[in-house]
Design brief:
Four copies of one chain form a homotetramer. The first copy, chain A, is of the alpha/beta class. Chain A contains eleven helices and 13 strands. Chains A, B, C, D: Keywords: Amino-acid biosynthesis, Arginine biosynthesis, Cytoplasm, NADP, Oxidoreductase. Chains A, B, C, D: Its main location: cytoplasm.
Chain lengths: 348, 348, 348, 348
């Protein structure tokens, strides 16, 4: 057997960190050598996450997020599950120490530091790295990811919106000015923080929109849609919180370009994703359901055409912690290190 | 004290029937004299719905849905919670016997029998009554409802979409060709039927779109929007099922008419609903949450304006069994019989 | 119409306070004149609880919990939904000012100040009042409650355990040394506090015991069981948290006294509760379900006999915020003020 | 790499069948060669379970449950996820054709055909095999399982009750006449059948006992407890349904044997399970939580001692579809075929 790749998770005590632990502890080509958490430093993973007890590696103690200490473990790659602003700083330090970095924060997703400041409210902490960072959608940019030192793993909402739309925009099948996306996210998307509005009794039996009209994720969504469309695109995006632990369902609609046969939608999706390991096409009339993708790296995509309005409807479903965060980051990691794309990710 | 109005519920064993029972058993101006169910005939209400035991009236036995027998109870009004097609027939028979009828099915919601046949797949069973039936949105048509013999109480999705949009269309504030509505409904909206796809384990931890692109409720939605707009309107409507017992959250978007000040949106809503007993305006930036309206007759409405796209976003929340079905029917009943609009409906 | 009784709720911003607001805002014989919350003082009820908007009385502003200010509103009765220790102090002050007090905390439930200190970890703050306080189980002590100035409204777990057991112990039908009670509570029982362990994602899809082997509620449970049995009783009590908003299901078992016909169980329950407005007997083999009692003042009780082990099994279900807290307090209030026991409580 | 063992799943369309598919499709030493379902015969697994699409093996078509056809696939082992009564017949046929059989039904769990008839209501369909069948609790009978042709994999409730109790009874630490077990099960335990009582709206926000006082699983529970105690044991067992997809939490109590130091409880558990791959001891005061074991083969066990009553309290948590069904069957399979006990089961 080949040697395992030594990995670190920086910021491993939240929900995304827990998902990365879940995946990397049992990834056949990975040896987890470091997991950091200021709050839990010194405790074994298993004490903080009883779910991991008696799994190999679960007695690894959390450490402080010190770049030198992380590098000293021999880690070759680091996954960052940190708040924006904080991630950029440690990414810089780890890159200097020779690690590959897969950053799950928003810090390197935007190529334009001004847009970052507009949406995140502070100057970009490491603008020099923006050119180098690769926006980590493996289905769109596998080649660049394979060569990357620094991958900016996409946000959960963006992944669910971008993958259905990009092939259609690239083929000019829809009118970019008419895009409306509605997403429903599980509560883990809001993070693991002591906040009354996230209590069980406040979220259970509750459905609500939030963050309108200018959710932060719009910045990366529109950046990537603009690239695909070859023109500047702005969209309407309405996120909702629904009472499930994880999962995002997204319904997107846009006008079919005049003169286009609706069947071209299915063909463009098939051409883009027919062979993709983690995109499952449900065909015309298929509606994606989050229950089929939770705890996997799959994204399911269905579509319909409404002849009455001339609009295309796309439904997609992914796990916000999986394809929307942790497992998509592992998919990029696999590409960077030349592993099979599906390594450690073929579960149901 | 004034005499109570004798009421019947026809088709009282499903979820809408149960909601009507819940409301009418304790309505201070109502005496429930009949509740029908072919399946449960002969059993007391309390045996079928243990939740009602030891409430006054709960020992009333279910009876067969026979129009003569219903009329013989002295019922002055009948609420029909029956499947479409079935409702029209019994409505006809009860009207002939002098009862007022509040029909919660789709049978009398459409003024055009051809549209009915297009959306419901069979010829309309009582087209002669279509002219007379009043589409029962009390906030829009209180006057007509007060005079009605036959009220077609609106569907759950339509109520949540129409109330926010009608004032805006009437004032030409938005472009009707750009309307996109996404709704998330609790599972009770699918009815109480033995169907594997509605099992707890199939719906819990699941979010999914369904019924696209041409859900039946589009027919009444577009009929009423067209009246408000003064022109023929078609919209894109995407319903979703989310794991809550009841409640509908709807997010609707449309382009603001060129040259209109966004503040006009708030003013139009305020002007239409500021004094409405059961519409609560959340103002600019407010997002409606189903948890605030379940088991009530309230609908909450918030709005936002996205300057980047020129679109208005409206969020609304109601109980699909309440304002979307049972309690809205009681609101119409109150109007028909000259009771305070809020009689029996002021609970939290 | 008779004049309404002026009421205050002290500590109205938590889940129990919210339930009291829900009940008292629409209680036909109550005028809510004061609701206190240090945190929310100055804001109208409707701003803190959007669910109450447009209900009569919902614009009342929260006030500070100052006894003089409360008395100045003309309040004749005060409901205290405060932490133990805090409640006793304000109860004393309000009693001095002539109000009747219904205390929903644990402060006056125990007649023995030493037991209080043992279970609550601090000396009793107002031992002089212990003799006077009436343990407010209306089905057991309606007479004393009618005469009381100070009612100690029982805890949620105790109510669900005591009501089934007391008639059996009074008739010596079961062996008190063999009692084992298991309860499953909705998450609202843990209160409305910003605590990671109460987040949606931590409670959803989770079932767990906690607080063993000596939950605080054991003190009042055993006090009341001992009175019923005429001897000192200790029991095993295992509480669990389950992912529902509200509701407690309790399953209790004990050995049938030798020589007793099992049918005597049903007879004793029937004799005790056949005419009780809020106890519903499900008979032999009936299993209580929380879904039938949520948001009501009902407690449902079923029983079974296991000939193989000689044990009786009692199942009960109530709403932890209703019969286990808010509505039971209102039931006592009704008795104190000579209202019908069911006033304001007959809903489903 | 060694050759994979060819496996069949008979009755693969229910919840237990789906769990077996989930495990065996990705088990590194298994090749799934057959999955049967009368209802779905001819369809690929992926069409019935969209969750499995694009996993290796997911295009295998369901076949009829014909023993010859199953044998013709070369299957060396068959997992039976069939109703009792049906399982025995096909087990017999498959054993005759040389397959190892791991039966997840109740058909071979009881060594006494009379007890089977008493609890299951029909004569045992294959009594000749009862002597040979091994009750498949790997932590208790690994040796016999390794040699078995026919393993009767235990029920979900029994596993959660037996594993905590057996070591204590073997060491005479508790009085077997005083055992009371309360279990709370996720809804998948009721199976995937179109039944109104299992609808989302009937189970969500509901907690209830059922099946008292003589649930079928008592037969195997008491058989195994009697073996451990060396005397005939009957217990009180109260199962409950709680609104989670999967997971069982069990709380068991019994009197500590007079004169025994409570610390002996912890020691006996540690001695029995300290080295067990899939039992995790939470120690004194630890309370097991289903959320830590769902979708794993782990069972977590905590304990407490109540000096006031002299009772021991044991809490355990497992996945009813995992350690309570599918993954425990795979654990036995691993033993039978000489694989590492943890093969295919080390996930979180």
């Amino acid at each position: 057997m080949t040697e395992r790749i030594k990995c670190a998770i920086v910021g491993a005590s939240g929900y995304t960190g827990q998902e990365l632990l879940r995946l990397l502890l049992v990834h056949p080509q990975v040896e987890l050598v470091a997991a950091t958490s200021r709050q839990e430093a010194g405790k074994p993973l298993s004490a903080v996450f009883p779910r991991f007890r008696k799994l190999p590696g679960a007695e690894l103690p959390f450490m402080e997020p010190d770049p030198d200490a992380i590098a000293a473990t021999g880690a070759q790659a680091a996954f960052l599950a940190l708040p924006h602003g904080v991630a950029a700083e440690i990414a810089t330090a780890l890159l200097e120490r020779g690690l590959k970095v897969i950053d799950l924060s928003a810090d390197f997703r935007l190529s334009d530091a001004d847009v970052y400041e507009e949406f995140y409210g502070h100057p970009h902490p490491a603008p020099a790295l923006l050119d180098e960072a690769v926006y980590g959608l493996p289905e769109i940019r596998a080649g660049a990811i394979r060569e990357a030192r620094l991958v900016a793993s996409p946000g959960c909402y963006p992944t669910s919106i971008l993958l259905p739309l990009i092939p259609l925009l690239e083929a000019s099948l829809i009118d970019p000015a008419t895009i409306v996306a509605n997403s429903m996210s599980g509560v883990s998307g809001a993070g693991k923080k002591a906040d009354v509005s996230l209590l069980f009794c406040e979220c259970n039996e509750s459905v609500r929109a939030y963050g309108i009209p200018k959710h932060r994720h719009l910045s990366e969504i529109e950046q990537e849609l603009s690239i695909a469309a070859g023109e500047s695109v702005v969209i309407t995006f309405i996120p909702h919180l629904v009472p499930v632990n994880s999962g995002i369902a997204t319904s997107t609609t846009a006008k079919l370009t005049e003169g286009i046969d609706p069947a071209a939608i299915g063909e463009a999706l098939e051409s883009a994703y027919g062979d993709a390991a983690f995109v499952r096409l449900l065909g015309k009339g298929g509606c994606a359901d989050t229950k089929n993708v939770t705890r996997t790296n799959f994204i399911d995509i269905g579509w319909a055409h409404d002849a009455r309005t001339g609009r295309v409807i796309l439904t997609s479903a992914e796990d916000n912690l999986g394809k929307g965060a942790g497992s998509q980051a592992v998919q990029s990691f696999n590409l960077i290190f030349g592993l099979p794309e599906t390594a450690g990710l073929q579960t149901a």
